[in-house]
Design brief:
The protein has helices spanning about 35, 115-130, 170-185, 190-200, 240-265, 290, 305-310, 320-330; strands at about 5-10, 15-20, 65-70, 85, 90-95, 95-100, 140-145, 160-165, 205-210, 210-215, 225-230, 270-275, 295-300. It has about 325 residues and is α+β, with helices and mostly antiparallel strands. The protein starts with a strand and ends with a helix.
Length: about 325
């Protein structure tokens, strides 16, 4: 067995990543006392606790955003992307990239940073994504941000993760297929229709500026789930303009501060979905530029996942999105 490997479930057609390095936390995550004492290996002055930076704009010795390789990566650049038979099953090396974006040198959460600092974080996501795209093996890219121990965060520091994969995983693939099928039938983007409806009714709208709208989805999977859609049709997150980066910083700051104040800083997952890289199969995603739109989803972790949800694939939610959105709109920041 390799240290990093991916195996395909033939029934669900989903990939599982196996990473031996994830069995034990890296040294600076080994003790929960870190969370109690407030020690963070990601703070300025503690650079010796992390691998060397691969992205740290600014003057020498001074940084606001710093990107380092994940010390216990789920995926590695080394390896072969060819599928291999394993008896009846398929497997391949766990090829990809796993990086940590340290969002500030201090201990402030992302939403409490000034807007220019949040813009720098977004720009780091974009810059690293563009750099990793130079490796033609990489197909799908995700920004993941886990906040709070129930969401899997182990260090009290504002960080996010950039993950590159040599396959297009099922959650993204399903969205791509739904968007393509909708466009084939109606000749317009499902994202545009959803956004237009949310802005028109405003009953689930949480915040809006010239570039983005944040709303509680109609069929929210969890209480106070929020989606952030760009108003401009763009399949690729890395297509953001400087003006849109500033607008997204505003939308993120406002939305996350409302969640923090409404729910007393809950644990949450933030996921950024963007279109995969294009292949030479021109007939495969031939309408992607028009039908898919990059977007962000924020899901608070207020309750544990139950067997009902795992077994049925249906989510249980006790707070209607209209109620959640109305409450969040009233939160002053």
């Amino acid at each position: 067995m390799n240290d990093n490997e991916m195996r395909l479930d033939p029934l669900r057609q989903t990939w599982t990543v196996f990473a031996r390095s994830r069995m034990a936390k890296p040294p600076f995550l080994a003790h929960k006392k870190n969370a109690r004492t407030g020690f963070s290996p990601f703070s300025a002055g503690n650079e010796q606790f992390t691998p060397p930076a691969i992205f740290a704009p600014g003057e020498a010795g001074k940084w606001n955003v710093r990107v380092v390789p994940n010390r216990a990566p789920a995926l590695r650049v080394e390896g072969d992307t060819q599928r291999r038979a394993d008896g009846f099953y398929d497997r391949m090396d766990g090829v990809g990239a796993h990086e940590v974006i340290i969002e500030n040198p201090g201990t402030e959460p992302l939403e409490e940073l000034p807007l220019p600092a949040i813009s720098q974080v977004i720009n780091a996501w974009k810059a690293r994504m563009l750099d990793l795209m130079r490796d033609i093996r990489m197909r799908a890219f995700f920004v993941i941000k886990d906040v709070g121990e129930p969401a899997g965060a182990h260090v009290p520091h504002a960080v996010s993760q950039l993950i590159a994969m040599a396959v297009v995983p099922d959650p993204l693939l399903q969205k791509l297929e739904v968007a393509r099928d909708f466009y084939d039938r109606k000749k317009r983007s499902i994202f545009e229709d959803i956004l237009r409806e949310e802005v028109r009714t405003a009953t689930r709208l949480v915040y809006e500026n010239n570039g983005f709208a944040a709303f509680c989805p109609y069929a929210s999977r969890a209480p106070f789930e929020i989606a952030i859609y760009p108003k401009r049709q763009c399949a690729d997150f890395h297509g953001l303009s400087d003006q849109e980066i500033a607008q997204l910083a505003d939308a993120l700051k406002t939305t996350l501060r409302k969640i923090a104040r409404a729910l007393d800083r809950p644990a949450y997952h933030l996921m950024l979905y963007t279109a995969p890289t294009r292949t030479n199969r021109r007939d495969h995603w031939n309408t992607l530029e028009a039908d898919f739109r990059w977007h962000i989803e924020i899901v608070p972790r207020l309750f544990f996942t139950t067997g009902f949800e795992i077994g049925t694939g249906c989510c249980l939610n006790t707070v209607w999105p209209e109620t959640a959105a109305e409450y969040l709109r009233k939160i002053e920041i």
